[in-house]
Write a structure and sequence with these properties.
GO terms for molecular function: fatty-acyl-CoA binding; flavin adenine dinucleotide binding; glutaryl-CoA dehydrogenase activity. This protein is of the alpha+beta class. It contains 10 helices and 9 strands.
């Protein structure tokens, strides 16, 4: 083989050329979201993280709506109808900036909007989905409770019939966007099983309290929802919701976004470490010239690229209609763990500088502790995979 036919050297930023197999449309979406994230999110996220909030969530929601990422995988009602890989790429680029910002989009589109799209009446869809897609209305998804996390079937929130109305009582916890939402999708136990309800903000008996003193996912609004005798008309019920499978199917959509988002967080940490290793000098040379640092970079680039390949394969399966929820469990389990390893290693490459918000690594590192817990803990997804390969459930 002559020199002119040799393959080019690997690109450090995409070592296995994962993005080479993207379609032109997928590349356009990747580039548009990346440009938006670099211009409007990255310059502000450290300040938002330090402040422990998003200062203008409604303004940000409108910008996300203009970008077209809210419910972008849904069909109709002002949604883009994009493919799974395209949606995944958007999540990757957003979480490369911050997990909290990807959560904003995931909760709006993959949880609240998906629940209405899948289980809502035509009237509910027409009322909420176009406004939510445009970022003119914000939604949240109330499933988790203070004493019911990994076992949502044990929820204590109840909905009882009173004439033609429903009356809801209970508490939901760790609800992203809860205190700024215009509508909450609330899941409650009824005599007919678990059902979903649309609870508009301002409904008497419904309050949303912002959770403070978080040390992770700080550039995100997290809330407690309290329902005290909340009376809703019959049409507040999501008529297609039946049983625990309904909210879990929405969670699977959001978990798919995490598969991609974690790959983005890992990429950002690796990129920061690679740049730092080339510019930080000790003992008269860049630290990237030392064997131990090169081993760290090698470990990181392997994790980053394997996470990217995992996300892409699961995305292709989803676009082909062949993605089982165990595939998504595999992706969340593998990619979040990989991202955590990369973030910790990148922090060590940065030394003491790695604990400051001047660099993104400590922010990603602590955010990923939450990502490993929400929408199915590492342990739950391990058991999901274990059940898939053995045929035996170890959950109970």
């Amino acid at each position: 083989m002559t020199d002119q036919h040799k393959a080019p050297a690997p690109d450090p930023a995409d070592f296995l050329a994962v993005d080479r197999s993207l379609t032109s449309e997928e590349r356009d979406i990747r580039d548009a979201v990346r440009a938006f994230a670099d211009a409007e999110l990255a310059p502000n996220v450290a300040e938002w993280f330090e402040a422990g909030t998003i200062p203008d969530p409604r303004g940000l929601a409108k910008r996300f709506g203009e970008l077209g990422v809210f419910g972008m995988h849904l069909q109709g009602y002002g949604c883009a109808g994009a493919g799974a890989v395209s949606y995944g790429l958007a999540c990757r680029e957003l979480e490369a900036v911050d997990s909290g910002l990807r959560s904003f989009v995931s909760v709006q589109g993959s949880l609240a909007m998906t629940a209405i799209h899948k289980f809502g009446s035509e009237e509910q869809k027409q009322e909420w989905l176009p406004r939510m897609a445009a970022g003119e209305a914000i939604g949240c998804f109330g499933l988790t409770e203070p004493d019911s996390g990994s076992d949502p079937g044990s929820m204590r929130t109840r909905a009882r019939r009173d004439g033609t109305d429903w009356v809801l009582d209970g508490t939901k916890m760790w609800i992203t966007n809860g205190s700024v939402a215009d509508v909450a999708v609330v899941w409650a136990a009824t005599d007919e099983g678990i059902r979903g309800f649309l609870v508009p903000a301002g409904t008497p008996g419904f309050t949303a309290n912002t959770v403070h003193h978080k040390l992770s996912l700080r550039a995100s609004i997290t809330s407690e929802l309290v329902l005290d005798g909340v009376r809703l008309p019959a049409e507040a019920l999501l008529p297609g919701s039946k049983g625990l499978g309904s909210p879990l199917s929405c969670l699977n959509e959001a978990r798919f976004g995490i598969v991609w988002g974690a790959a983005g967080a890992a990429r950002a940490c690796y990129a920061a470490a690679l740049d730092y290793a080339g510019t930080r000098e000790q003992f008269g040379r860049p630290i990237g010239a030392f064997q131990l640092t090169q081993r760290k970079l090698a470990d990181m680039v392997v994790d980053v690229n394997q996470a990217g390949l995992t996300a892409l394969q699961i995305g292709r399966l989803k676009d082909d209609g062949a993605c089982h929820h165990n595939h998504v469990s595999f992706g969340k389990f593998a990619n979040v763990a990989a991202a955590q390893r990369v973030a910790r290693t990148a922090r060590s490459v940065h030394g003491a500088n790695g604990i400051t918000l001047e660099y993104p690594v400590i922010r990603h590192m602590v955010n990923l502790e939450t990502v490993a817990t929400y929408e199915g803990t590492e342990e739950i997804h391990a058991l999901s995979i274990g059940q898939a390969v053995t045929g035996v459930s170890a959950f109970r």
